[in-house]
Amino acid sequence: MKQAPLPMILITFQVVALSATSSGFSISLPGCPDKCGDVPIPYPFGIGNGCAAASINRFFTITCNSTFHPPRPMISDPSASTEIIDISLERAEMRVYGPVTYNCFSSNTTVMDNYTGGISLVGMPFLPSTARNRFMVIGCNTMGIIGGYTHSTPDPYVAGCYSYCQGINSTANGAPCNGKGCCETTIPTNLIDFGAIFIINQSSVWSFNPCFYAMLAEVGWYNFRQQDLIGRLGFINERAKRGVPLVLDWAIRNGSCPKDGAKAPIGYACVSSNSYCVDAINGPGYMCNCSEGYEGNPYLPTGCQDIDECKLHKQNPKYTELYPCKNGVCRNIPGGYVCKCGIGKRSDGKNSGCRPVLRQAEQVVIGLSVSSVVVIALACMLAMKIQRRKHRKEKELYFKQNGGLKLYDEMRSRQVDTIHILTEKEVKRATENYRDDRVLGCGGQGMVYRGTLDDDKEVAIKKSKVINDNCKEDFVNEIIILSQINHRNIVRLLGCCLEVDVPMLVYEFISNGTLSEFLHSNDRKSVIPLDLRLKIATQSAEALAYIHSSTSRTILHGDVKSLNILLDDDYNAKVADFGASALKPINKDDFILFIQGTLGYLDPESFVSHHLTDKSDVYSFGVVLLELLTRKKALYIDNLGEQKALSHTFIVMFHQKKLCDILDDDIIGDEVMVVLEKLAELAMHCLNPIGDERPTMKEVAERLQTLRRINMQKVSTANPMRMHYPDGESSMSDETKYQSTDTANLALDVDFAR
């Protein structure tokens, strides 16, 4: 058969929610229908205007199609008609009937009919469940390929599977889809649409298998049946008349769970007083659940109601093991129950009943023993109470000395609500009493531990060395300043602990290590593309430019180096370690952060003058640019075993026009040499021995942005295949797709002519 280009069969999906809660609690808004036919419709979903949380997302409004008997609920989407099977509040899932894509042939050259259908998820609160769905293909000698897009990246997702029919007669009905007659594969998270393409070899099985099917369906719904391969549209007419079951995750997509102690934002959906918020399993957003001991609809103001475990135990035998209280007196309490034994009885030790107390003689012996134990216990308790009081006074003294009262006053006056003050007990619990395997790093300023707070939030806790008593007031001022820094490329300060001798700081945890480890680890097998290096450099420069000029008071980093630039899972740069716990006395009229520099990065002008300026950070950042260009450390060992300063070696090689001899071989290429040369020139400007002649960090960031756009244009022109980061992220951004190479080169020339 002559193979013509096959059009992409676009299939997009819409989501459904699962069955409602139990126990007869109200699931819908007052005055609104709670069912369509046999399907319960719980809020935030609703039938008709005013009965759904349409202000959060208009697709929460459900249409009840009464042309069927019984009526069928439908997604309110004018572009498609998607039937809802059921909705679950507990699992935040919706099951719907999804479409089946098919091609049917009557000869080796004629396409008799085909069907492409779909439901668009763009703008909807629904995403196909990755755990409960599979992409399936049914047919002989056919490959099904899907490609689509997700929320998390603009780059296409591609996967597929091959179905063959050799030995099909030996395959029993009900067999799993392992390749004979049908095949299946998984899908990614955050999938918002996909297309399916059939690649078919029909030369040997045309009359036997005229139709081929592709679908996204619930796991376990389909098992192989030979009859599905025979005849035209037999599968559609017999097994998928209304479509195939598809499980979709839904959530409140336009928001996130409030942080501890933070006020709930406007439009927050978890309105029940006995509910809590959890992050969405699939995609952005959050879900609401009733607290333990409560049931109902957490999206309604009084939706979560207390469960009377005592009544359930009496009325339904299935609760006997769940709420054991056989012979005792069961008393219901909000969110739980207590089981107490009556007078003259005691617990049988199994929390399931009571038995008579001991005989009198046994009571006397036990009473005397208990009296002795009580006396000893009282003495121990008194000693412990005295010790606790002493320890409490010591912690209160530390808290005052470390500026805790001043911090409280500032928090009230400036309405600083982003800083969480932890107790010493909470810090020890988070770090498992400072266990060695919790250590993330050890530097000149102190130890950094990985910690887990009580809400399971991962954090980095900095336990600093002793600081001067005169600097403790400045320490509180720095906490206030750092709490007001809000930049995506700066590690956020989350809290502090002040009731210890040396204050501790709590930062957000960045999972992918430091830029130094990424560039200089012993495992140098992975290639780091130039665009990823430019991305890290640009984001780091933007963060430093922000603290230099975009905050209410100028903040200098003072210790810019690759070890203080962290990388998250997507290789986004996060500037860290402002040293607020290791301050030195500074001019009150010029409020900056002062940190002792690191050899190899230290500005020689600052070293001589003992004065830190914003151009000192520019010099140190210039050394980081050299590390990105050469993949060498600031102080490295050359081929002769001698220790060299990277800044000195690079300047010499640059002036000798031997740039290619020191650059990393992985990024050298004819199409990007102009970018590398301009980047080297920028690094040389940053390393100018005269601070006033160096560019500002804002100028450095702007030039790096220009270089990144030029690099993408040149690479995409020379090689249409997109570059990929080590984690698979594409290096191509939307903003570069429409900029011409000539325009970008002109911008580069103008920018560096300044």
TrEMBL record:
Cellular localization per UniProt: Membrane
Gene3D superfamilies on file: Laminin, Phosphorylase Kinase, domain 1, Transferase(Phosphotransferase) domain 1
Keyword ATP-binding attached: yes
Signal sequence region: 1-24
Pfam families documented for this protein: GUB_WAK_bind, PK_Tyr_Ser-Thr
GO cellular component, one term: plasma membrane
Protein kinase domain: residues covered: 434-707
Membrane-topology annotation of the record: Single-pass type I membrane protein
Keyword Signal among UniProt keywords: yes
Domain of life from the UniProt record: Eukaryota
Annotated GO MF terms: ATP binding; calcium ion binding; polysaccharide binding; protein serine/threonine kinase activity
SMART domains: EGF, EGF_CA, S_TKc
Biased composition (Polar residues): 730-740
Record keywords, A-Z: ATP-binding, Disulfide bond, Glycoprotein, Kinase, Nucleotide-binding, Serine/threonine-protein kinase, Signal, Transferase
Family matches, as InterPro entries: EGF, EGF-like_Ca-bd_dom, EGF_Ca-bd_CS, Kinase-like_dom_sf, Prot_kinase_dom, Ser-Thr/Tyr_kinase_cat_dom, Ser/Thr_kinase_AS, WAK-like
Residue span of region Disordered: 720-740
Single GO biological process annotation from the record: cell surface receptor signaling pathway
Name by which UniProt lists this protein: Protein kinase domain-containing protein
Lineage, top ranks: Eukaryota, Viridiplantae, Streptophyta, Embryophyta, Tracheophyta
